[in-house]
Write a structure and sequence with these properties.
Blueprint lengths: L2 E2 L7 H26 L14 H9 L6 E4 L2 H10 L5 H8 L13 H9 L5 H19 L5 E6 L6 H12 L4 E9 L16 E5 L3 H16 L5 E8 L9 H11 L4 H26 L14
Parallel strand pairs: 1-5, 2-3, 3-4, 4-6, 5-6
Helix pairs in contact: 1-2, 1-3, 1-9, 1-10, 2-3, 2-8, 4-10, 5-6, 6-7
Length: 300
């Protein structure tokens, strides 16, 4: 049965850092949306306005040795932000695919072979299969690593997920399936109807600290041999009539905790600085004025 976790409460400094990361993700999406309006983006893209808390809270729960597998763009961007990696190449890759250099963790021989065998043009199916390979390799290594596989709620009812869940449950693989359920102004999207025997946690996807706490618990359970878990995070696009913007939600929480407006403004200013520097770097890279850097941005 699904249940909602009670939030134990993160340290105030951690909450401020999560707030900053959400602002960076929002501003990055805004910069990309402006590029789309200007006709600079190749292909369609959908801004993830209102979904920042799920992405940031999930990524912040990852530990050294943990792996994320997903086809959802804003989760990959949140990972870049969480690791303080340069965001300029992210913008370049969106504007000119193949030009940006976005480094990821290097797979071992076992995982690399698995991914080659099961490569699929369907990115969601691919991410679920890769999650099996990653989590199996982590189980074999015995080092306590966990794979977090992020999917949309529509993928949960697929035949592919049913097979993946069956294998993960049978082998008690160290994998957490984070299901992002998005509701928008066009109507209510239903959450996963089938859980395929997996234990389920439900969390308010507008609350970044609650998301983080829930993923931390699921990851801890998987790393100690508890097996896989589904974590469903329900969130809203900012145009939803009853939705609360996660940035507004977090700001209200921080204000109630005694954080003053000046401190909050400084956090927001740092986020703007990071994205501003990333945009300037992206422009330089697109003009061919230098290679993509490999270190973190100043202020990241």
């Amino acid at each position: 049965m699904a249940r909602t976790l009670e939030r134990p409460g993160a340290h105030l400094g951690e909450q401020l850092e999560l707030y900053r990361r959400m602002w960076v993700l929002r501003l990055l999406d805004m910069a990309l949306e402006e590029s789309r309006i200007d006709g600079l983006l190749e292909g369609p893209t959908v801004a993830a306005f209102g979904q920042e808390a799920v992405a940031v809270g999930t990524i912040a729960a990852l530990r050294p040795g943990d792996v994320m597998s997903t086809a959802i763009r804003h989760f990959r961007h949140a990972q870049q932000v969480g690791l303080a990696r340069p965001l300029g190449p992210v913008i370049v890759e969106m504007l000119a695919p193949g030009r940006g250099v976005i480094a990821g963790p290097k797979d071992g021989p076992l995982v690399a072979e698995w991914k080659q065998v099961f490569a699929s043009p369907d990115l969601t199916r691919q991410s679920m299969l890769f999650a099996l390979g990653d989590s199996y390799a982590q189980q074999v290594s015995g080092e306590g690593g966990v794979t977090v596989c992020v999917i949309g709620d529509d993928a949960v009812d697929s035949a592919e997920f049913k097979s993946v869940a069956s294998v993960a449950l049978s082998w008690r693989l160290p994998v957490v399936f984070v299901v992002e359920t998005v509701r928008d102004a066009s109507g209510v999207r239903r959450g996963p109807r089938e859980h395929h025997g997996l234990p389920v946690l439900c969390v308010d996807g507008r609350d970044v600290v609650a998301v983080n706490d829930s993923v931390v618990q699921a990851v801890q359970r998987a790393s100690t041999g508890g097996g896989p878990t589904i974590l469903e995070a329900v969130t809203y696009r900012t145009n939803h009539p009853v939705g609360v913007d996660p940035l507004v939600y977090a700001r209200q929480q921080l204000t109630r905790s005694g954080v003053g407006p000046g401190h909050l403004y400084e956090v927001e200013r740092r986020a703007r600085q990071v994205v501003g520097e990333a945009s300037a770097l992206a422009n330089a890279l697109l003009r061919g004025q230098g290679p993509a850097p490999t270190g973190p941005l100043v202020g990241g």
